[in-house]
Amino acid sequence: MRERLRRIEEQARLAGAVLEERAREMMAPTLRLGVTGLSRSGKTVFLAALAHNLIHGGRLPVFAPYAEGRLAKASLAPQPDDEVPRFPYEDHVRSLSEDRIWPKSTKRIAELRVTIEYESARLFNRKLGRGKLHLDLIDYPGEWLLDLPLMHLSFREWCAEAAAEAARRPREAAEFVALSAELDPLSPATDGNAARLAEIFTAYLKAARADPNALASLPPGRFLMPGDMEGSPALTFAPLTVPAEGIAPPGSLWAMMERRYEAYKTHVVRPFFRDHFARLDRQIVLVDILSALNGGPEAMDELRRALISVLSCFRTGKLTFLGSLIDRRIDRIMFVATKADHIHHTDHDKLEKILAALVEEASAKAAFAGTDVQTAAMAAVRATREGTASQNGVALPTIIGTPLAGQKLGARTFDGNTEVGLFPGDLPDNPAEVFDGTHDDYGVSTLRFRPGQIERNNAGVTLSLPHIRLDRVLQYLIGDRLQ
Question: What is the pTM of this model?
Protein backbone atom coordinates (compact mmCIF):
# COMPACT_ATOMS: atom_id res chain seq x y z
CA MET A 1 0.00 0.00 0.00
CA ARG A 2 2.81 2.41 0.88
CA GLU A 3 4.48 1.74 -2.48
CA ARG A 4 1.21 2.32 -4.33
CA LEU A 5 0.62 5.63 -2.54
CA ARG A 6 4.18 6.70 -3.31
CA ARG A 7 3.66 6.02 -7.02
CA ILE A 8 0.37 7.95 -7.04
CA GLU A 9 2.10 10.87 -5.35
CA GLU A 10 4.98 10.85 -7.85
CA GLN A 11 2.58 10.64 -10.81
CA ALA A 12 0.57 13.60 -9.47
CA ARG A 13 3.77 15.60 -9.02
CA LEU A 14 4.89 14.72 -12.55
CA ALA A 15 1.48 15.66 -13.99
CA GLY A 16 1.68 19.08 -12.36
CA ALA A 17 5.20 19.69 -13.68
CA VAL A 18 4.29 18.59 -17.21
CA LEU A 19 1.15 20.76 -17.24
CA GLU A 20 3.24 23.77 -16.22
CA GLU A 21 5.81 22.97 -18.94
CA ARG A 22 3.10 22.61 -21.60
CA ALA A 23 1.73 26.05 -20.70
CA ARG A 24 5.18 27.58 -21.23
CA GLU A 25 5.52 25.74 -24.56
CA MET A 26 2.46 27.27 -26.23
CA MET A 27 4.58 29.58 -28.39
CA ALA A 28 7.82 27.55 -28.57
CA PRO A 29 7.50 23.76 -28.08
CA THR A 30 10.23 21.87 -26.23
CA LEU A 31 11.69 18.50 -27.14
CA ARG A 32 13.54 16.82 -24.28
CA LEU A 33 16.12 14.46 -25.74
CA GLY A 34 17.56 11.85 -23.42
CA VAL A 35 21.13 10.92 -24.29
CA THR A 36 21.74 7.63 -22.54
CA GLY A 37 24.72 5.33 -22.55
CA LEU A 38 26.87 3.34 -20.23
CA SER A 39 30.20 4.78 -19.15
CA ARG A 40 32.67 5.31 -22.04
CA SER A 41 29.96 5.19 -24.69
CA GLY A 42 30.55 8.79 -25.82
CA LYS A 43 27.61 10.81 -24.45
CA THR A 44 29.57 14.00 -23.80
CA VAL A 45 31.20 13.94 -27.25
CA PHE A 46 27.83 13.30 -28.90
CA LEU A 47 26.18 16.24 -27.14
CA ALA A 48 29.00 18.62 -28.04
CA ALA A 49 29.03 17.46 -31.68
CA LEU A 50 25.25 17.62 -32.05
CA ALA A 51 25.07 21.19 -30.77
CA HIS A 52 28.13 22.30 -32.76
CA ASN A 53 26.84 20.93 -36.06
CA LEU A 54 23.42 22.51 -35.58
CA ILE A 55 24.84 25.89 -34.60
CA HIS A 56 27.61 26.04 -37.20
CA GLY A 57 25.88 24.32 -40.09
CA GLY A 58 27.78 21.06 -40.41
CA ARG A 59 27.65 18.61 -43.26
CA LEU A 60 24.17 17.24 -42.70
CA PRO A 61 22.81 16.06 -46.08
CA VAL A 62 20.32 13.58 -44.55
CA PHE A 63 18.95 16.09 -42.04
CA ALA A 64 16.01 17.42 -44.08
CA PRO A 65 15.59 20.91 -42.52
CA TYR A 66 19.26 21.67 -43.29
CA ALA A 67 19.41 19.94 -46.68
CA GLU A 68 16.25 21.76 -47.83
CA GLY A 69 17.50 25.15 -46.64
CA ARG A 70 14.78 25.47 -44.00
CA LEU A 71 17.07 25.61 -40.96
CA ALA A 72 17.22 29.36 -40.33
CA LYS A 73 19.25 29.44 -37.14
CA ALA A 74 20.28 27.36 -34.15
CA SER A 75 21.69 28.99 -31.05
CA LEU A 76 22.35 28.33 -27.39
CA ALA A 77 19.68 29.54 -24.98
CA PRO A 78 19.39 29.85 -21.21
CA GLN A 79 18.62 26.45 -19.76
CA PRO A 80 15.20 25.86 -18.22
CA ASP A 81 16.30 24.27 -14.93
CA ASP A 82 18.16 26.77 -12.78
CA GLU A 83 19.24 24.13 -10.26
CA VAL A 84 21.06 22.01 -12.90
CA PRO A 85 24.62 23.02 -13.92
CA ARG A 86 25.10 24.10 -17.52
CA PHE A 87 26.77 21.65 -19.91
CA PRO A 88 30.24 23.17 -20.61
CA TYR A 89 29.73 23.17 -24.37
CA GLU A 90 32.40 25.73 -25.21
CA ASP A 91 35.08 23.93 -23.19
CA HIS A 92 34.29 20.58 -24.82
CA VAL A 93 34.31 22.02 -28.35
CA ARG A 94 37.62 23.75 -27.64
CA SER A 95 39.10 20.46 -26.45
CA LEU A 96 37.90 18.66 -29.59
CA SER A 97 38.68 21.29 -32.21
CA GLU A 98 41.74 23.17 -30.91
CA ASP A 99 43.50 20.87 -28.45
CA ARG A 100 42.35 17.72 -30.29
CA ILE A 101 41.77 15.82 -27.07
CA TRP A 102 38.63 14.08 -25.86
CA PRO A 103 36.58 15.80 -23.13
CA LYS A 104 36.90 14.47 -19.62
CA SER A 105 34.29 12.01 -18.41
CA THR A 106 31.17 13.53 -16.92
CA LYS A 107 31.22 13.69 -13.12
CA ARG A 108 27.83 15.29 -12.51
CA ILE A 109 24.59 16.06 -14.29
CA ALA A 110 24.51 18.99 -16.72
CA GLU A 111 22.03 20.50 -19.17
CA LEU A 112 22.08 22.45 -22.43
CA ARG A 113 19.28 24.09 -24.44
CA VAL A 114 19.60 24.67 -28.19
CA THR A 115 16.89 26.83 -29.78
CA ILE A 116 16.21 26.01 -33.43
CA GLU A 117 14.42 28.43 -35.77
CA TYR A 118 13.18 26.97 -39.04
CA GLU A 119 10.90 27.45 -42.02
CA SER A 120 8.08 24.94 -42.16
CA ALA A 121 7.87 22.45 -45.01
CA ARG A 122 4.12 23.08 -45.13
CA LEU A 123 2.82 26.09 -47.09
CA PHE A 124 0.14 27.02 -44.57
CA ASN A 125 2.56 26.96 -41.64
CA ARG A 126 5.13 29.06 -43.57
CA LYS A 127 2.59 31.86 -43.85
CA LEU A 128 2.39 31.97 -40.07
CA GLY A 129 6.11 32.75 -39.80
CA ARG A 130 9.15 30.87 -38.60
CA GLY A 131 8.78 27.93 -36.31
CA LYS A 132 10.80 27.55 -33.15
CA LEU A 133 11.80 24.47 -31.17
CA HIS A 134 13.71 24.30 -27.90
CA LEU A 135 15.92 21.19 -27.82
CA ASP A 136 16.88 20.30 -24.24
CA LEU A 137 19.88 17.99 -23.80
CA ILE A 138 20.93 16.27 -20.57
CA ASP A 139 24.38 14.86 -19.75
CA TYR A 140 25.15 12.73 -16.68
CA PRO A 141 27.69 10.10 -15.59
CA GLY A 142 27.06 6.74 -17.25
CA GLU A 143 27.64 5.05 -13.90
CA TRP A 144 24.40 6.58 -12.59
CA LEU A 145 22.36 4.93 -15.32
CA LEU A 146 22.65 1.45 -13.79
CA ASP A 147 20.93 2.72 -10.64
CA LEU A 148 17.53 2.95 -12.32
CA PRO A 149 16.67 -0.79 -12.10
CA LEU A 150 17.15 -0.59 -8.31
CA MET A 151 13.80 1.20 -8.12
CA HIS A 152 12.07 -2.13 -8.75
CA LEU A 153 14.30 -4.32 -6.54
CA SER A 154 13.89 -5.04 -2.86
CA PHE A 155 17.00 -5.29 -0.71
CA ARG A 156 16.78 -9.10 -0.75
CA GLU A 157 16.46 -9.16 -4.56
CA TRP A 158 19.39 -6.77 -4.96
CA CYS A 159 21.54 -8.92 -2.67
CA ALA A 160 20.78 -11.96 -4.83
CA GLU A 161 21.66 -10.10 -8.03
CA ALA A 162 24.85 -8.71 -6.48
CA ALA A 163 25.88 -12.23 -5.44
CA ALA A 164 25.34 -13.50 -8.99
CA GLU A 165 27.43 -10.66 -10.43
CA ALA A 166 30.21 -11.30 -7.91
CA ALA A 167 30.27 -14.97 -8.95
CA ARG A 168 30.97 -13.83 -12.52
CA ARG A 169 33.98 -11.84 -11.27
CA PRO A 170 35.70 -14.11 -8.71
CA ARG A 171 39.06 -12.34 -8.93
CA GLU A 172 37.77 -8.80 -8.34
CA ALA A 173 35.15 -9.85 -5.80
CA ALA A 174 37.29 -12.23 -3.70
CA GLU A 175 37.88 -9.92 -0.72
CA PHE A 176 34.30 -8.67 -0.65
CA VAL A 177 32.85 -12.20 -0.87
CA ALA A 178 35.12 -13.37 1.97
CA LEU A 179 34.15 -10.47 4.24
CA SER A 180 30.46 -10.84 3.41
CA ALA A 181 30.59 -14.52 4.36
CA GLU A 182 32.35 -13.62 7.61
CA LEU A 183 29.74 -11.09 8.77
CA ASP A 184 26.48 -12.48 10.12
CA PRO A 185 23.56 -10.36 8.84
CA LEU A 186 21.67 -11.14 12.07
CA SER A 187 24.47 -9.79 14.25
CA PRO A 188 24.09 -6.39 15.97
CA ALA A 189 24.69 -3.46 13.66
CA THR A 190 27.84 -1.40 14.17
CA ASP A 191 29.06 1.57 12.17
CA GLY A 192 32.50 -0.04 12.02
CA ASN A 193 31.26 -3.20 10.30
CA ALA A 194 29.04 -1.20 7.96
CA ALA A 195 31.85 1.14 6.94
CA ARG A 196 34.31 -1.71 6.47
CA LEU A 197 31.92 -3.72 4.29
CA ALA A 198 30.95 -0.67 2.21
CA GLU A 199 34.62 0.19 1.69
CA ILE A 200 35.51 -3.32 0.47
CA PHE A 201 32.34 -3.43 -1.68
CA THR A 202 33.27 -0.10 -3.30
CA ALA A 203 36.81 -1.33 -3.97
CA TYR A 204 35.33 -4.41 -5.69
CA LEU A 205 33.07 -2.22 -7.88
CA LYS A 206 36.05 -0.07 -8.88
CA ALA A 207 38.17 -3.13 -9.69
CA ALA A 208 35.38 -4.56 -11.85
CA ARG A 209 35.02 -1.21 -13.65
CA ALA A 210 38.78 -1.02 -14.27
CA ASP A 211 38.64 -4.19 -16.37
CA PRO A 212 39.19 -2.95 -19.97
CA ASN A 213 36.57 -5.44 -21.17
CA ALA A 214 33.95 -4.27 -18.66
CA LEU A 215 31.05 -2.69 -20.51
CA ALA A 216 28.66 -1.99 -17.67
CA SER A 217 29.20 -0.56 -14.23
CA LEU A 218 27.63 -2.41 -11.32
CA PRO A 219 25.16 -0.52 -9.14
CA PRO A 220 25.03 1.53 -7.02
CA GLY A 221 26.42 4.06 -9.49
CA ARG A 222 27.16 6.77 -6.91
CA PHE A 223 29.73 4.45 -5.32
CA LEU A 224 31.84 4.89 -8.47
CA MET A 225 30.87 8.46 -9.37
CA PRO A 226 29.50 10.09 -6.18
CA GLY A 227 29.32 13.65 -7.51
CA ASP A 228 28.26 15.98 -4.70
CA MET A 229 27.50 12.95 -2.48
CA GLU A 230 31.15 12.07 -1.98
CA GLY A 231 31.74 11.18 1.66
CA SER A 232 28.02 10.98 2.45
CA PRO A 233 26.81 8.35 4.97
CA ALA A 234 24.13 7.50 2.38
CA LEU A 235 26.82 5.58 0.49
CA THR A 236 27.73 3.37 3.46
CA PHE A 237 25.85 0.17 2.70
CA ALA A 238 26.46 -3.10 0.83
CA PRO A 239 24.70 -6.36 -0.05
CA LEU A 240 24.63 -9.21 2.44
CA THR A 241 23.93 -12.94 2.36
CA VAL A 242 20.42 -12.68 3.82
CA PRO A 243 17.94 -15.51 4.50
CA ALA A 244 15.49 -16.37 1.72
CA GLU A 245 12.55 -15.63 4.01
CA GLY A 246 11.70 -13.48 7.00
CA ILE A 247 12.33 -9.87 7.91
CA ALA A 248 15.37 -8.15 9.32
CA PRO A 249 15.49 -8.15 13.15
CA PRO A 250 15.54 -4.62 14.59
CA GLY A 251 19.06 -3.46 15.38
CA SER A 252 20.72 -6.07 13.16
CA LEU A 253 23.31 -5.44 10.45
CA TRP A 254 20.71 -6.67 7.96
CA ALA A 255 18.21 -4.04 9.15
CA MET A 256 20.81 -1.26 8.95
CA MET A 257 21.89 -2.17 5.39
CA GLU A 258 18.31 -2.56 4.21
CA ARG A 259 17.33 0.80 5.68
CA ARG A 260 20.26 2.57 4.01
CA TYR A 261 19.58 0.82 0.70
CA GLU A 262 15.96 2.01 0.74
CA ALA A 263 17.12 5.52 1.69
CA TYR A 264 19.48 5.49 -1.30
CA LYS A 265 16.58 4.62 -3.59
CA THR A 266 14.34 7.28 -2.05
CA HIS A 267 16.78 10.18 -1.94
CA VAL A 268 19.06 9.43 -4.90
CA VAL A 269 17.61 7.07 -7.49
CA ARG A 270 13.96 8.11 -7.62
CA PRO A 271 14.65 11.88 -7.77
CA PHE A 272 17.14 11.27 -10.60
CA PHE A 273 14.48 9.33 -12.49
CA ARG A 274 11.63 11.73 -11.66
CA ASP A 275 13.47 14.95 -12.48
CA HIS A 276 15.10 13.75 -15.70
CA PHE A 277 14.09 10.38 -17.16
CA ALA A 278 10.37 10.71 -16.50
CA ARG A 279 10.28 13.95 -18.54
CA LEU A 280 11.82 12.70 -21.79
CA ASP A 281 10.21 12.82 -25.25
CA ARG A 282 12.88 11.09 -27.32
CA GLN A 283 15.77 8.81 -26.42
CA ILE A 284 19.11 7.95 -27.97
CA VAL A 285 21.01 5.05 -26.43
CA LEU A 286 24.75 5.04 -27.21
CA VAL A 287 26.42 1.62 -27.20
CA ASP A 288 30.15 0.83 -27.44
CA ILE A 289 29.80 -2.37 -29.48
CA LEU A 290 33.45 -2.45 -30.58
CA SER A 291 34.78 -2.66 -27.03
CA ALA A 292 32.31 -5.44 -26.29
CA LEU A 293 33.51 -7.38 -29.34
CA ASN A 294 37.04 -7.32 -27.97
CA GLY A 295 35.72 -8.69 -24.68
CA GLY A 296 34.14 -11.71 -26.37
CA PRO A 297 30.69 -13.31 -25.92
CA GLU A 298 30.67 -12.77 -22.14
CA ALA A 299 31.13 -9.02 -22.55
CA MET A 300 28.44 -8.93 -25.22
CA ASP A 301 26.04 -10.75 -22.91
CA GLU A 302 26.85 -8.38 -20.03
CA LEU A 303 26.09 -5.43 -22.27
CA ARG A 304 22.84 -7.02 -23.48
CA ARG A 305 21.64 -7.63 -19.92
CA ALA A 306 22.52 -4.11 -18.83
CA LEU A 307 20.62 -2.52 -21.72
CA ILE A 308 17.52 -4.63 -21.11
CA SER A 309 17.60 -3.73 -17.42
CA VAL A 310 17.94 0.00 -18.06
CA LEU A 311 15.40 0.21 -20.89
CA SER A 312 12.80 -1.51 -18.73
CA CYS A 313 12.78 1.63 -16.55
CA PHE A 314 11.96 4.09 -19.34
CA ARG A 315 8.47 5.47 -19.79
CA THR A 316 7.74 4.50 -23.40
CA GLY A 317 4.67 4.67 -25.63
CA LYS A 318 2.41 7.17 -27.37
CA LEU A 319 -0.03 9.51 -25.65
CA THR A 320 -3.35 10.98 -26.72
CA PHE A 321 -3.56 14.77 -27.03
CA LEU A 322 -5.21 15.09 -23.63
CA GLY A 323 -2.77 12.64 -22.09
CA SER A 324 0.19 14.63 -23.41
CA LEU A 325 -0.96 17.66 -21.41
CA ILE A 326 -0.16 15.95 -18.11
CA ASP A 327 2.39 13.31 -19.05
CA ARG A 328 5.48 12.72 -21.16
CA ARG A 329 6.41 9.46 -22.84
CA ILE A 330 9.31 8.40 -25.07
CA ASP A 331 7.79 7.84 -28.52
CA ARG A 332 11.08 7.28 -30.39
CA ILE A 333 14.25 5.45 -29.38
CA MET A 334 17.41 5.15 -31.44
CA PHE A 335 20.11 2.67 -30.47
CA VAL A 336 23.46 3.84 -31.84
CA ALA A 337 26.73 1.95 -32.11
CA THR A 338 29.42 4.57 -31.50
CA LYS A 339 33.02 4.84 -32.76
CA ALA A 340 32.13 3.78 -36.30
CA ASP A 341 35.28 5.61 -37.43
CA HIS A 342 37.35 2.78 -35.87
CA ILE A 343 36.29 0.43 -38.67
CA HIS A 344 36.12 0.75 -42.45
CA HIS A 345 32.87 2.02 -43.94
CA THR A 346 32.31 -1.37 -45.62
CA ASP A 347 31.71 -2.77 -42.12
CA HIS A 348 29.30 -0.07 -40.91
CA ASP A 349 26.19 -1.99 -41.94
CA LYS A 350 27.58 -5.13 -40.26
CA LEU A 351 28.13 -3.15 -37.07
CA GLU A 352 24.53 -1.96 -37.22
CA LYS A 353 23.28 -5.55 -37.65
CA ILE A 354 25.26 -6.66 -34.59
CA LEU A 355 23.71 -3.79 -32.62
CA ALA A 356 20.21 -4.75 -33.79
CA ALA A 357 20.78 -8.32 -32.62
CA LEU A 358 22.15 -7.09 -29.28
CA VAL A 359 19.13 -4.89 -28.49
CA GLU A 360 16.49 -7.12 -30.09
CA GLU A 361 14.78 -7.96 -26.80
CA ALA A 362 14.90 -4.40 -25.46
CA SER A 363 13.62 -3.05 -28.80
CA ALA A 364 10.73 -5.51 -28.86
CA LYS A 365 9.54 -4.40 -25.43
CA ALA A 366 9.68 -0.72 -26.40
CA ALA A 367 7.90 -1.36 -29.71
CA PHE A 368 5.16 -3.32 -27.92
CA ALA A 369 4.46 -0.21 -25.83
CA GLY A 370 4.00 1.83 -29.02
CA THR A 371 7.46 3.38 -29.28
CA ASP A 372 9.19 3.54 -32.66
CA VAL A 373 12.72 2.05 -32.56
CA GLN A 374 15.66 2.29 -34.98
CA THR A 375 19.37 1.42 -34.93
CA ALA A 376 22.38 3.12 -36.50
CA ALA A 377 26.19 3.11 -36.54
CA MET A 378 27.76 6.52 -35.98
CA ALA A 379 30.82 8.51 -35.02
CA ALA A 380 29.75 11.82 -33.47
CA VAL A 381 33.29 13.16 -34.00
CA ARG A 382 35.34 11.42 -36.64
CA ALA A 383 38.92 10.72 -35.58
CA THR A 384 40.16 8.80 -38.65
CA ARG A 385 40.02 8.81 -42.43
CA GLU A 386 40.16 5.84 -44.78
CA GLY A 387 42.87 4.52 -47.07
CA THR A 388 44.12 1.35 -48.73
CA ALA A 389 47.25 -0.70 -48.08
CA SER A 390 48.72 -3.55 -50.04
CA GLN A 391 49.87 -6.79 -48.41
CA ASN A 392 51.20 -9.65 -50.53
CA GLY A 393 49.51 -8.10 -53.53
CA VAL A 394 46.13 -7.91 -51.75
CA ALA A 395 44.50 -4.51 -51.19
CA LEU A 396 43.40 -4.06 -47.58
CA PRO A 397 41.03 -1.30 -46.39
CA THR A 398 42.67 0.78 -43.68
CA ILE A 399 41.88 3.59 -41.29
CA ILE A 400 44.37 6.41 -40.76
CA GLY A 401 44.60 8.50 -37.63
CA THR A 402 46.80 9.87 -34.86
CA PRO A 403 46.83 7.61 -31.77
CA LEU A 404 46.72 9.34 -28.42
CA ALA A 405 50.03 9.73 -26.63
CA GLY A 406 50.89 6.56 -24.73
CA GLN A 407 48.78 4.25 -26.88
CA LYS A 408 50.57 1.03 -27.78
CA LEU A 409 50.50 -1.27 -30.80
CA GLY A 410 52.71 -4.27 -30.24
CA ALA A 411 56.08 -2.98 -29.07
CA ARG A 412 55.43 0.52 -30.40
CA THR A 413 54.33 3.40 -28.16
CA PHE A 414 52.87 6.47 -29.88
CA ASP A 415 53.77 10.06 -29.08
CA GLY A 416 50.40 11.66 -29.90
CA ASN A 417 51.68 13.36 -33.08
CA THR A 418 52.43 10.48 -35.44
CA GLU A 419 49.83 9.21 -37.85
CA VAL A 420 49.39 5.51 -38.43
CA GLY A 421 47.46 3.48 -40.97
CA LEU A 422 46.17 0.08 -39.94
CA PHE A 423 43.80 -2.64 -41.00
CA PRO A 424 41.04 -2.45 -38.36
CA GLY A 425 39.77 -6.01 -38.68
CA ASP A 426 36.65 -7.53 -40.24
CA LEU A 427 33.20 -7.92 -38.76
CA PRO A 428 31.17 -11.07 -39.53
CA ASP A 429 28.32 -11.10 -42.04
CA ASN A 430 26.24 -13.12 -39.58
CA PRO A 431 25.86 -11.20 -36.27
CA ALA A 432 25.01 -14.41 -34.39
CA GLU A 433 28.66 -15.44 -34.60
CA VAL A 434 29.74 -12.80 -32.08
CA PHE A 435 27.21 -14.03 -29.50
CA ASP A 436 27.54 -17.81 -29.67
CA GLY A 437 31.33 -17.99 -29.34
CA THR A 438 31.82 -19.99 -32.54
CA HIS A 439 34.24 -17.32 -33.76
CA ASP A 440 36.43 -15.21 -31.51
CA ASP A 441 38.60 -13.43 -34.06
CA TYR A 442 36.33 -10.46 -34.73
CA GLY A 443 38.06 -8.06 -32.41
CA VAL A 444 38.90 -4.66 -33.85
CA SER A 445 41.71 -2.25 -33.14
CA THR A 446 41.75 -1.02 -29.54
CA LEU A 447 43.84 2.07 -30.36
CA ARG A 448 42.35 5.36 -29.25
CA PHE A 449 42.84 8.18 -31.74
CA ARG A 450 42.97 11.92 -31.28
CA PRO A 451 40.03 13.88 -32.72
CA GLY A 452 40.57 14.73 -36.38
CA GLN A 453 41.94 18.01 -37.65
CA ILE A 454 39.13 20.54 -38.18
CA GLU A 455 39.03 21.90 -41.72
CA ARG A 456 38.70 25.54 -42.72
CA ASN A 457 36.96 26.92 -45.78
CA ASN A 458 38.50 29.30 -48.34
CA ALA A 459 37.65 32.28 -46.16
CA GLY A 460 39.51 30.76 -43.22
CA VAL A 461 36.36 30.01 -41.24
CA THR A 462 36.57 26.90 -39.07
CA LEU A 463 34.08 24.26 -40.20
CA SER A 464 32.02 22.04 -37.95
CA LEU A 465 33.24 18.87 -36.29
CA PRO A 466 33.47 15.97 -38.79
CA HIS A 467 31.20 12.99 -38.16
CA ILE A 468 29.78 9.78 -39.59
CA ARG A 469 25.97 9.55 -39.91
CA LEU A 470 25.20 12.20 -37.29
CA ASP A 471 22.80 13.74 -39.83
CA ARG A 472 20.85 10.47 -40.04
CA VAL A 473 20.56 10.38 -36.25
CA LEU A 474 19.36 14.00 -36.14
CA GLN A 475 16.76 13.38 -38.81
CA TYR A 476 15.23 10.49 -36.92
CA LEU A 477 15.30 12.15 -33.50
CA ILE A 478 14.10 15.68 -34.31
CA GLY A 479 13.44 15.95 -38.08
CA ASP A 480 9.69 15.35 -37.80
CA ARG A 481 9.40 18.16 -35.21
CA LEU A 482 10.80 20.66 -37.72
CA GLN A 483 8.19 20.15 -40.45
Answer: 0.86
